[in-house]
Each structure stands twice: as structure tokens, then as C-alpha cells.
Structure to design on (946 residues):
């Protein structure tokens, strides 16, 4: 029954704790009964008879004679009832007042945090805040919690209010009299002596007071959640600029960090340098403020340019190394193929050229230098390579070139090298079968002095044309320069530029955005200084990236403020 | 009468109440036995008698109004006179008149004006179809009802005590009638509706009553017993909260008062007079006495309030058009008013009892209501 009653309390939204003492009371009652505290008037209980029976008495005297407990006095009922009403009135008023306090408290927290965000721009304000915080012995944010000190005051006020609005004893008497159908006896008990009518007051029972607390409690919880949210809301959400700026910075910082990591992995920059760049990037991110995003963007741009410059340099080096290593690889293969048909002098000269080219490539490429150490390196230094060593050297050189191409590919994937540059390099490295042609050229050399020319002719320089591939390339000769003195050039007037037509134009207005192209407009023509793509003059308009928008808007907004002040 | 109990004294003993209560219940039993099927009406009539108030009975012809009053006179052992009010009835026909009368035989020319008392000089005056008399004649009863005296030719004569006017009027056949003026109505403590008897009651009447004659009472109440009842009436305790409730009820019958209901604001032109509050208090005391209690409870007030208030509310024309009666207005007022005046906030209410619901019957001395102690069991 107790569980059922408690469940009913919960379902109805009533206080389930009001029923908490019921099982305790029942247990105490049962213990009293078992211990004989309630004695039957008829003496010992007969076997098989009901364990308990009801005994009716007329008044307290008769009840005392029957050994029954004293009935609860009506004044006790009245006191308990008033206590219940008092508790509910107090709780109700506290919920209302606390909710009423929480709303302005939360608003004040939000406003003060926003005001502090602006106030801390000035060093004087920040210093004053620090001094005040030192004097108060707590961070200046803590004083936002001070309104919580009002809660005990609200409790006291609620108690006083409830006490003031508590029904009087006479009213409660009247209520209990009406509810218990006492016929005025309970009311008369407070005003006159009931005499022998007092026994009827035992009929008084205690009604419960119901307070529909759901609405008040929900409002209080909502108000409390609002205050908590005002305290827990991150500082950056107090400014829309900060929110937008930090988002873009996060993306850009992540991109730059990836690029730094790539440069470090490809050993384009040393780890110390990469660490310094990472640190600089973190500092930029940490010091990013919403009030001046231009500085942050400028710093990020600078760092990005450094990274891009290093990547470009590395790409050029890698491209050159790849070409050199490819050329040396071709020469090594060519020597290996043509070694039987070459004279010993020519072979020695070719070996020297190969040694020179390999050493130059190894000086630029640490991986290659590491690969040719040992016996192969000694042979290269002595310019005496066996066919086997020539094959090995060619393979090492090809691998080194491929590694450089891979590095280029990685840089291109990171956006640091354009796809066109990568494709051009790959085309140059894999172009034709250079080793066979060079082997033929080497085999054709009778003198050692022709070896260098034969090798240079395969260096990709001009002069290697003609049917059948032609012979060795002929070097350009720069001699017998013509004399330009006393030479008169025919003067030819240039066509008038489109800018000249703007002399007669008049300014009607300045557009804020890009001009829109009309479908029925004519062909391309000089459109003035801003978009002179099709005519003479320069386009002074610089394309703005989305990340520059904040700075540009701030620039124009400052101008607007200045104008408004002037107005 | 001393009302020491009203000023912090003691309630009267149950033993002191026992004899009057037995007498009252005897009267009720006799009335119930003589006139079948109207116990509630008999109780309310007795409330009026014990309160020393005048009663206006309204009902169709033949429903037993006159029989009830006659039976009441017989049971109470009081003098009873009946006046059939007609349009040509004159005040002197009720109050009495001075007539020139010779002093006696042998005296020459010695004549003097002597007063011949009218039917009003009785204990119970049945004013049958009172609304058929002219206003002049109706007004002749004003002093008798209020002051319980009659003044003629500058001489005031006391009426017998107790004095009751039990009037009847027919709600139909309003042609040729004179509605009672408000001052006259206000002097009637109760206005009771006498409805037609039910089928079962009619069957019992025609089965047990030859030609509808009411049997003679087997027991009557002596004047001493009746005086004892009146004496006990004065010692019935009226708690302050009940007095306040009565005051709030009467005040709320006036439109535009704080506790006036919508119906009152809409349909009532004038509310009840202070005399209504006095009448309600007295009637409540009588109701409590009949119940055998030494104090007045809210249930007593609720029981007598419709009879006290219904003829004192002056309704407007809108009520007549909407066919809203004063009884409905009073019922709504009683249902909507919190008798204790707890005045809790709207989201708080007093629920049922947490332990042991009390019985609906108020305590009574005559019934020997006992206090119950449950010793365990399966309650």
C-alpha cells in the first residue's frame, strides 16, 4: 500500500516524501501492538478470533480507562497544518523570488563580461581591475558571483513573507471544522470552553496542502540554467568578430602547420627551423584578437609566404637536381654501352665528365652523396668505373632523380608547387631515350676533346634538330656584332590608347563591387584604370581573398566613422 | 438572555441540551407522522419557529400549506387562527376594532369604546394567500410582525408570545393579487417552497388518510418545553468565523462587492439587508439546535441560507428574461465562497485528509456520537 501510495504521489506530481514516514509509523504501530501496548478490553484474545478489534469510547476519560492512547489535540493538528502551509508558501515565494533574481543576474553577467571585453582594451582599465582584484583578494571575475549572497536573504524574506501571509489559527480552525464537519465545535474550542463536548474533537483529521510546484520549479531551474550559461559561456562568443576570425584562423593555421610538417619531412627545412615556425604559428594563433584581425592575418600571410618561398626554392633545387641526375644517369648508361667502341682516351675523358657531373649532383643531393659512398665513390673520384659500377651508378642516379620528383609531387599536392611545374619537370626527366643517343655520340667521338661537346649536345640545349636527330649540336656564336650607330629608325605612330578617351569622361559614381558584365556589351576594350585587361594601362585592382574581408571591412568602417564625424 | 458563551465562557452542557432536543425531535416526528413526505420542510418550519421568525410558504393550492400550519399549531399546543386574505379584507379585520359598547344593564346611557381584538391576537396566525389582500391590509401586519404589538387609536397592545405569522401565497393566478412589498417580505425570516408530493407520498396519503384528514398528534409540546427550547436557542454558540461567513454571504449578495459572483453582478439589483444577516444567524442557531449541537457550524448556515436569502434578493429585468431565480443565485454563491476564508495562492489547495476521513455527520449529543479508537485491524 505504501509503494502504491508513493507511486501515486509521483504520478500526480505531489511530494513523495510526504509519505516517507508511513512505513516507519506502520512498523512502530505493529511493534506496539505486538508488545501489548494496545490491550483489548476483553482481556486475552481467544484462539482463532480476530487479532484486533475496534473499541469505541466517548471521551478522553473513558479512553484512559480503556488504556487507549490520548487522541491528538486539535491544536496540534492546527500547528502541523500551519507548518505545512508555511513551508509551501515559503518554498513558493523562494522559487519566484530566486527566479526573479536569476534573470537580471544572468543578464548582468553577460553585460559585464561584454563590457569587460571592451574595457580591457585600455591599459588603465586593466590596471584598475588588477588593483581592485588585488584589494578584493580575488579575481575580478569572482565578483559576478556576489549576487549569490542574496539567496540567504531571499530565504529569510520568503520566510517572513510566508509568515505574514500564513492563515491565522482561527482560519485554520474554521477550515478544519468545515472539512471535518465538526459543526462549529472546533471553532468554538478557540473561543470558549467546550466542557464535555471536547471528546468530539477527536474526529478532527488533518488535510494535506497541495502546492503545484512544477511550474515554479521549472521556472527556477530555467533561470538558474540561464545564470550558469552566462558564467560558462566562452569568452570568444561575446564578440561576433572573434567568433568568425578564430574560425578562419583555425583553418589557416591547420593548413600552415601541415605545410611546415611537409617541409620538415622532405628535409627542405631543418627540424629546428620547423620547430621555430611551429612556435611562431602557435603564438600567432594564441595572440589572435578579435579587435584587430588584420594583424593576425598579416602574420599568417607572412608565415605562409616564407613557407611558400622555401618550397619554391626547394622545388627549383629538386628540379635541377633531377635534371642533373638524369643527365648523369644517361651518361653512365651511355658510357657503359659505348665503352667497347671508344678509345681509351675518350673513355677516360667521358669517365672524368661523369665523375664531375656525379660529384656536382652529389654536392646538391645529400641522399645521392650517401648512396655513392664507399667503393663506388672511390671509383667515381678516380674516374675509373667498371661496367658493373657504371650500371650501379646509373641506377643510383635514376633513383635519386625519382626521389626528387617525388618531393616535387608532394609539394604540389600540398599546394606549394603548381601542377604545371611538376608536369614540366616530369616531362623533362622522362624525355626520350637520352642514353642511346648519347652512346652513339660518344662512340662517334674519335678525340677526347670531342667528348665534352658530345655530352653538352645532349644537355637539352638548342641545336639538336635536323633529320635523323642530326649530329652534335653546334654552339651559338656571338661575334661580328652589327653597329647601330647612325642608324635611323622609321617612326611609326602607335594607335591611341583607350585611356585617352577617358579625358572627356566624367565621373558619375564609384561602385563598391566588381562591375557586372552585360551580355549585350561589346568586345573587350580598355575599361579604365580599374579593369584595363583588354587595353593599355595597368590593372591596379588586386584580387582580395576571403580572409582579407575582415580587414577591408574594418578599413571602410573606419572611413565611415571618420566621415560621420566630419559630417 | 445571557450569552456568556459568546464571550469566552463555556458551552452549555450536553445534559442541558438533551431535554429541548428531545422535545424538538418529538415535534419533528409528530409533523412527519401527520404530514407525509416533507421532513425537510418540517425541519425548516421548525427552524423558523425556534428562531421566532415569520415564515412565508409558497406553493400551489392543495399541497398542504394550511395543513402544515394547523398541524404545527396542534403539536406546539399554541393558539392558532386563520385569516383568508381577500382584496376587500380591511386592516381592522385582522388587527381588531373599537366598538361602542354599553357598560351593562341598568346604567343609563353609559357606553364606551371597547377594543375587540382581531385574529392577529394569537400565537400562530395563518395568513392564507396573503398576496390577495390590498397593500393597506398587508401593511397592517408590519408592526405586528416586527414589534409583536398592535397600535390602535394611540394604544399599543402586546401580542401573545410567541407570535408567528405563517403566510402562504400562490405563485400562479397572479391576476388580482398584490405582490408583497419589499419591506413586508423582509420581515419574513424564511420563504419556503412547498412542492408537490411525490408519487410514493401520494400513494401513502391516499392509502392511510381518509378524505385526506390528518391524524391528531399523539404527543404535544407544552409551553414550558417550548420556552426551554427558546432558552436553549439563546445559548447556542455562534463562532466568530461563522459570523464572519454570514456577513460575507450577505455582503456578497450586493452587486459590485468583492465576493459577488457573476450572476449577482448580472441579475441582482439590490442585495439582502442586515436583517437578513440577523435572520441567518438565528436560523443557523435553530438548525444547530435541531441537530443537537451547542455551536453553529458552516453546514447550518449553508442549510438555511437559501430560505433566508431567496426572497430578499431583488432581481432585475434581465433575470426575468433569462429565467434565473434567486435560489440559483444563492446556490452559486454558496458553492463559490470559501467558508473559512483561507485565501491561499491559486496554485495551492487543500486536499483530502491524509489519515482517517471523518464522517460526514456533525457531532450530536442526542445521538451519543462516540469517539472511535481503532485497535489495528484491517482498516
Amino acid at each position: 500500500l505504501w509503494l502504491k501510495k508513493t507511486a501515486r504521489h509521483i504520478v500526480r506530481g505531489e511530494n513523495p516524501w510526504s509519505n516517507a514516514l508511513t512505513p516507519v509509523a506502520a512498523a512502530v504501530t505493529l511493534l506496539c501492538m505486538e508488545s501489548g501496548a494496545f490491550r483489548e478490553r476483553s482481556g486475552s484474545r481467544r484462539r482463532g478470533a480476530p487479532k484486533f478489534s475496534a473499541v469505541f469510547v466517548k471521551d478522553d476519560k473513558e479512553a484512559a480507562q480503556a488504556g487507549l492512547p490520548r487522541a491528538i489535540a486539535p491544536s496540534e493538528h492546527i500547528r502541523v497544518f500551519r507548518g505545512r502551509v508555511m513551508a509551501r508558501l515559503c518554498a513558493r515565494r523562494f522559487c519566484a523570488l530566486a527566479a526573479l533574481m536569476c534573470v537580471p543576474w544572468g543578464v548582468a553577467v553577460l553585460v559585464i563580461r561584454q563590457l569587460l571585453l571592451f574595457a580591457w582594451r585600455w591599459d588603465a582599465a586593466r590596471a584598475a581591475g588588477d588593483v581592485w582584484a588585488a584589494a578584493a583578494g580575488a579575481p575580478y571575475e569572482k565578483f559576478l558571483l556576489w549576487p549569490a549572497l542574496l539567496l540567504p536573504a531571499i530565504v529569510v524574506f520568503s520566510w517572513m513573507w510566508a509568515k505574514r501571509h500564513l492563515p491565522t489559527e482561527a482560519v485554520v480552525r474554521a477550515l478544519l471544522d468545515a472539512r471535518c464537519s465538526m459543526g462549529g465545535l472546533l471553532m468554538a474550542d478557540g473561543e470558549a470552553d467546550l466542557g464535555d463536548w471536547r471528546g468530539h474533537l477527536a474526529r478532527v483529521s488533518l488535510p494535506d496542502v497541495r502546492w503545484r510546484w512544477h511550474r515554479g520549479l521549472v521556472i527556477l531551474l530555467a533561470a538558474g540554467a540561464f545564470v550558469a550559461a552566462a558564467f560558462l559561456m566562452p569568452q570568444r562568443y561575446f564578440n561576433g568578430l572573434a567568433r568568425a576570425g578564430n574560425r578562419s584562423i583555425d583553418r589557416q593555421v591547420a593548413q600552415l602547420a601541415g605545410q611546415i610538417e611537409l617541409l620538415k619531412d622532405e628535409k627542405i627545412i631543418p627540424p629546428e627551423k620547423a620547430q621555430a615556425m611551429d612556435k611562431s604559428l602557435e603564438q600567432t594563433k594564441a595572440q589572435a584578437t578579435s579587435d584587430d584581425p588584420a594583424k593576425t592575418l598579416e602574420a599568417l600571410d607572412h608565415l605562409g609566404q616564407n613557407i611558400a618561398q622555401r618550397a619554391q626554392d626547394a622545388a627549383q633545387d629538386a628540379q635541377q637536381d633531377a635534371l642533373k641526375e638524369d643527365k648523369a644517369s644517361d651518361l653512365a648508361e651511355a658510357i657503359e654501352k659505348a665503352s667497347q667502341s671508344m678509345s681509351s682516351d675518350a673513355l677516360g675523358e667521358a669517365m672524368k665528365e661523369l665523375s664531375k657531373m656525379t660529384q656536382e649532383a652529389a654536392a646538391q643531393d645529400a641522399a645521392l652523396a650517401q648512396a655513392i659512398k664507399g667503393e663506388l665513390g672511390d671509383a667515381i673520384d678516380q674516374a675509373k668505373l667498371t661496367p658493373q659500377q657504371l650500371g650501379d651508378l646509373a641506377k643510383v642516379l635514376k633513383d635519386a632523380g625519382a626521389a626528387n620528383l617525388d618531393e616535387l609531387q608532394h609539394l604540389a599536392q600540398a599546394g606549394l608547387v603548381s601542377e604545371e611545374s611538376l608536369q614540366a619537370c616530369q616531362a623533362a626527366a622522362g624525355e626520350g631515350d637520352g642514353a642511346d643517343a648519347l652512346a652513339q655520340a660518344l662512340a662517334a667521338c674519335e678525340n677526347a676533346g670531342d667528348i665534352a661537346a658530345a655530352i653538352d649536345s645532349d644537355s637539352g640545349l638548342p641545336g639538336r634538330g635536323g633529320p635523323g636527330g642530326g649530329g652534335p649540336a653546334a654552339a651559338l656564336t656571338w661575334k661580328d656584332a652589327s653597329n647601330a650607330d647612325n642608324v635611323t629608325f622609321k617612326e611609326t605612330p602607335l594607335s591611341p590608347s583607350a585611356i585617352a578617351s577617358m579625358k572627356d569622361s566624367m565621373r558619375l559614381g564609384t561602385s563598391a563591387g566588381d562591375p557586372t558584365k552585360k551580355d549585350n556589351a561589346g568586345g573587350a576594350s580598355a575599361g579604365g584604370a580599374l579593369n584595363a585587361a583588354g587595353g593599355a594601362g595597368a590593372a591596379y585592382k588586386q584580387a582580395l581573398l576571403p580572409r582579407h574581408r575582415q580587414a577591408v571591412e574594418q578599413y571602410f568602417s573606419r572611413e565611415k566613422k571618420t566621415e560621420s564625424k566630419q559630417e | 438572555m445571557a450569552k456568556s458563551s459568546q464571550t469566552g465562557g463555556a458551552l452549555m452542557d450536553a445534559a442541558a441540551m438533551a431535554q429541548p432536543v428531545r422535545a424538538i425531535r418529538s415535534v419533528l416526528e409528530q409533523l412527519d407522522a401527520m404530514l407525509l413526505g416533507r421532513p425537510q420542510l418540517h425541519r425548516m418550519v421548525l427552524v423558523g419557529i425556534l428562531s421566532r421568525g415569520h415564515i412565508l410558504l409558497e406553493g400551489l393550492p392543495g399541497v398542504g400549506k394550511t395543513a402544515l400550519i394547523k398541524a404545527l399549531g396542534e403539536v406546539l399546543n399554541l393558539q392558532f387562527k386563520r385569516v383568508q386574505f381577500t382584496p376587500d379584507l380591511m386592516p381592522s379585520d385582522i388587527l381588531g376594532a373599537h366598538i361602542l359598547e354599553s357598560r351593562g344593564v341598568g346604567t343609563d346611557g353609559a357606553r364606551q369604546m371597547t377594543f375587540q381584538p382581531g385574529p392577529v391576537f394569537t400565537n400562530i396566525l395563518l395568513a392564507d394567500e396573503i398576496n390577495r389582500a390590498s397593500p393597506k391590509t398587508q401593511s397592517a401586519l408590519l408592526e405586528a410582525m416586527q414589534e409583536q404589538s398592535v397600535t390602535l387609536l394611540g394604544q399599543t397592545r402586546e401580542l401573545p408570545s410567541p407570535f408567528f405569522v405563517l403566510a402562504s401565497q400562490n405563485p400562479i393566478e397572479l391576476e388580482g393579487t398584490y405582490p408583497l412589498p419589499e419591506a413586508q417580505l423582509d420581515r419574513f425570516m424564511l420563504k419556503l417552497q412547498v412542492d408537490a408530493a411525490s408519487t410514493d407520498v401520494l400513494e401513502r396519503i391516499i392509502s392511510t388518510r381518509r378524505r385526506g384528514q390528518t391524524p391528531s398528534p399523539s404527543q404535544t409540546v407544552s409551553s414550558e418545553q417550548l420556552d426551554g427550547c427558546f432558552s436553549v436557542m439563546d445559548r447556542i454558540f455562534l463562532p466568530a468565523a461563522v459570523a464572519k461567513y454570514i456577513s460575507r454571504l450577505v455582503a456578497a449578495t450586493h452587486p459590485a462587492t468583492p465576493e459577488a459572483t457573476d450572476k449577482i453582478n448580472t441579475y441582482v439589483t439590490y442585495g439582502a439587508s442586515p436583517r437578513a444577516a440577523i435572520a441567518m444567524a438565528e436560523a443557523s442557531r435553530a438548525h444547530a439546535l435541531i441537530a443537537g449541537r451547542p455551536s453553529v457550524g458552516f453546514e447550518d448556515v449553508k442549510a438555511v441560507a437559501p430560505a433566508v436569502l431567496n426572497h430578499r434578493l431583488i432581481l432585475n429585468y434581465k433575470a426575468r428574461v433569462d429565467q434565473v431565480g434567486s435560489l440559483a443565485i444563492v446556490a452559486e454563491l454558496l458553492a463559490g465562497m470559501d467558508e473559512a476564508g483561507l485565501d491561499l495562492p491559486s496554485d495551492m489547495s487543500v486536499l483530502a485528509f491524509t489519515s482517517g476521513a471523518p464522517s460526514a455527520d456533525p457531532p450530536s449529543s442526542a445521538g451519543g456520537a462516540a469517539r472511535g479508537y481503532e485497535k489495528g485491524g484491517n482498516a
Remarks:
- Residues 1-5, 354-361, 365-379 of chain B have pLDDT under 50 and may be disordered.
- DSSP finds 14 helices and 13 strands in chain B.
- Residues 146 and 187 of chain B are 7 Å apart (CA to CA).
- Chain B touches chain A through 63 residues (CB under 8 Å).
